[in-house]
Write a structure and sequence with these properties.
266 residues, 6-stranded antiparallel beta sheet, 2 domains, 21% strand, elongated, disordered C terminus, single chain, alpha+beta
Length: 266
Amino acid sequence: MSETKEGNFLLKINKINGGSHAANNFLKPDDIIVALDNQIYTFGEKQLTSDLKELKKNNQKSMLTILRDDIFFNLLIENSLGCKFTTTTAEETNKIKSNYLSQEVNDLDELKEFIGMRDVYRNYEVIENANSLSAGIFPPLWLAYSQKWWLLFLFTAIMAVSLTVNIYLFFLGWLLTSIYCYKAQLNLLFSFSMLEGKVFCVKLLSTSIDEAQKTIRKLDPKSKFKFSKLPKPLVEEVEKDKKDDNVNKKDSNKENIVDENQTVIV
């Protein structure tokens, strides 16, 4: 990071340009830039843009810490964000700094990048953005780990048929499948999730998939995961209150309806 004059404010995203690095990383308006590589960043918009452009120029990556709805999370950044910013007040800045310094921090080399996909029912799938060696060595194990059971069944059935036909055909099919799975494993996982109606919604850095799910649950309390150590999401009390209000309104409307067989005395 270049040496420059430090201010007493943090940058808050005001507008995100379409197709920008920020949009590709699923940042949102009102997200606050808190730190760059674990260093609180109060150097302003111009310096941030310059520092991030240097990453692209030098083919480097850095960790950007974001605050969203009082939740801190980290992103892997390699280019300028392409945003318009406003700034936090001195009071907001001091509060955020204090909260951030109380957080546990990890170096970039201790973290892995995860991509979250979700459907309209808030069913999430979290995928590590890295190639797994098991996909190339033993595809069935990789499919089982990724919980793609229907594809595992299909692969097993095809391999079983090829083995009964010709053992050389079996080994050739296994070799080609292993190479393809290793080379295209991320695209395959993304495609399978899209077939299930899921779309890309979040990127973040975390120490493990369990920690990534915890962060997503904080960002979206209604998030659900098929295989997770987390408890089921809590239903917001606001929705219950709304349902109760609707029921009460219906009951009151029924009370106001006069039976034709009854006599009304005015």
